[in-house]
Amino acid sequence: MTDADIAVVGAGAAGLYAALCAARDRANVVLVSATPLAQTASYWAQGGLAAALAADDSFDLHLRDTELAGRGLVRRTAAETLVREAPERVRDLQALGVHFDADRFGHLALGLEGGHSVRRVVHAGGSATGRRLVRQLSALAAEEPRITVFEGARAQALWIDKGPTHPRCRGLVCDDGRVIAARAVVIATGGAAALWARTTNPPGSQGIGLLLAHAAGATLADLELLQFHPTAVTGVPGREGYLVTEAIRGEGATLHDAQGQRFVDELAPRDEVSRAIHALLEQSGQRSVGLDMRAIDPAHFPNVVASLREAGLDPTRELIPVAPAAHYMMGGIVTDLDGRSTLPGLYAVGESSCTGLHGANRLASNSLSECFVFARRAVTDALSRCADEHPAASDSELERLRAIPASATAERSTRAALWRDAGVVRTPEGLERLLRDPHPLARLIARCALARTESRGAHLRADHPERDPAFDLRHVLVTGEDALSWQTWR
C-alpha cells in the first residue's frame, strides 16, 4: 500500500497541474498514468487557452461567448468562475516555465477561434500548445520530490470506505494490485470521444474515469452531449481523424463544397459548422469538403503542415479533405465548482468532469483553461476539507475491490455502433439499438440521448429537430443505480 495526501488518476494537462498544485501546497502526491508522461491525449491538443487578456476583451465578453456557444445549457456560475480565473492560470503557467507565443514587442499573441468575438486564445508553438504544455508540466512533475509517478499503471477500482454514516472515497486499486490510500482522489482521465469510430482522440480516450466513478456510485451527467469537430482529415491513410485546428480558420482558412463555393461561416460555433458540413455531405454523397488554407503562413502552424505533408497533402497548394469527427465530451462526472463529485473524497477535473461550463456545445479553447482553473480549485478544496487519517484495508476488502470490473475497452463493433447510432444526427431507432450494446458507457449515452427529446448544440435528433425551451438549463443525470433524473443548473 502507498499512502498519499492526493492521488491523481490521469497525467494530461488537468492531472499534471493538479499534482503540481498539490505539491506546491506541500502535499504528497501519487500520479497514476496509463501511458508514459507526455504521451497523454492533452499532448495532441492543438487549441490554446481562452482567457480575457486583451485590452478590447473583458470577463463579460468571454462569458457571453461561452453562453452563446453553449446553447442555453451553460451553468453561469461555472462560466463566471472560468472567465475570472483563467487569466491568473495563464500567468501561473508562465511562472512554471511555459513559453506562450508572443509578438515582436513581447506581448502575448492572441488567436481567434470559432465562437469568440475577439482574439483571446493563448498558444504555445502555434498549434503545438498541448505538446509544449504537457512536456513542461511532465518535466516538472518528474523532478518534484513530493510527486510519485506510477507510469503504465491503470486504476481498476476506487476504494470506498462505507463508514458509519455515508460512503467516502479513500483511494484506489491499480490493475497490478497496488493500493493507494489517499485523503482525496482526483479523476483526470479525459473524455470518451474515442468510443466513436471516427474520432480526433487517441485510442485511450474511452471514458475510463467515468466508469470508475459510476461503479463507485458517483453521479454522471450530460452523456448525450458529445461535440463533433468540423475539420478532421478524412480519406487519407495514416491521418484519418487528424484534427486541423480551428485557429487556422481563425486566421482566414475557408471551407468549400465540391463546386468550390463557401457554404458556412467558418468561425461560427462548432456545432453549427459540423451540422452544415454533415448536411452538405448527406445531400451531395461526398465524403469530405475542402479546407483551403493556402493563404495561411505555414510557419504559424508547423506541426499541422508537417503532419499533412507526411500524409502526402500539401496545404500550401491544395485543399485538405475534412469532415466532422467525435472530439470532446461535454458530459462527465458531476462536480461542483471546486471539483467535488457527489461521492465525498472523489474529485474530477478536465474533460472527465461535468460542471455545466460547456453547456451543449463547448466554446473553442475553453477546455484547456478549464483544466487549469478547476484543477487548482479541486486541490485547494481537497487539502482543506478531507480527513488526514487513512483507514486500513482488510485483505478481504482489497480482494473485493480487485474483482470490480472498473473499465471496459470498446470493441470495434461498439465504436462503429456509436458512430452510426449516436453520430452527428441521431434517430430513436438507432438509439434504441444502441441500448443493446455490450459496452456500459455506450448504453448510458443512448439512454441520455433518448431522454433529451430535442436538438440542442451537439445533440441533434432527427425526430425532434428544434430546440425545446423546456430543456433550458436542464441536465440529465445518471446515478450509480443507472437511474435517470433531471436537474436545473444555474
Please tell me what the overall shape is: globular
- Count the E strands: 19
Number of helices: 13
Cα(first) to Cα(last) distance is 41 Å
Strand content: 15-25%
User: What would you call the structural class?
Assistant: alpha/beta
CATH H level of the largest domain: which superfamily? FAD/NAD(P)-binding domain
The appropriate CATH architecture of the largest domain is 3-Layer(bba) Sandwich
CATH class of the largest domain: Alpha Beta
Rg calculated over all Cα atoms: 21 Å
Domain module count: 3
Pick out the low-confidence regions: none
Helix content: 25-40%
Kindly describe this structure.
The protein is built from 13 helices and 19 strands. The protein has 3 domains: 2-224 and 330-402, FAD/NAD(P)-binding domain (3-Layer(bba) Sandwich), CATH 3.50.50; 228-325, Flavocytochrome C3, Chain A, domain 1 (Alpha-Beta Complex); 416-488, Fumarate reductase/succinate dehydrogenase flavoprotein-like, C-terminal domain (Methane Monooxygenase Hydroxylase, Chain G, domain 1, Up-down Bundle), CATH 1.20.58. Strand 1, helix 1 (13-24) and strand 2 form a beta-alpha-beta unit. 31% of the residues lie in helices and 19% in strands. Helix 1 runs parallel beside helix 4 (129-143) and helix 1 runs parallel beside helix 9 (366-385). The strands form 4 sheets. Strands 1, 2, 6, 7, 8, 9 and 16 form a 7-stranded mixed β-sheet that branches. Strands 17-15-10-18-19 form a 5-stranded mixed β-sheet. It has 490 residues and is an alpha/beta fold.
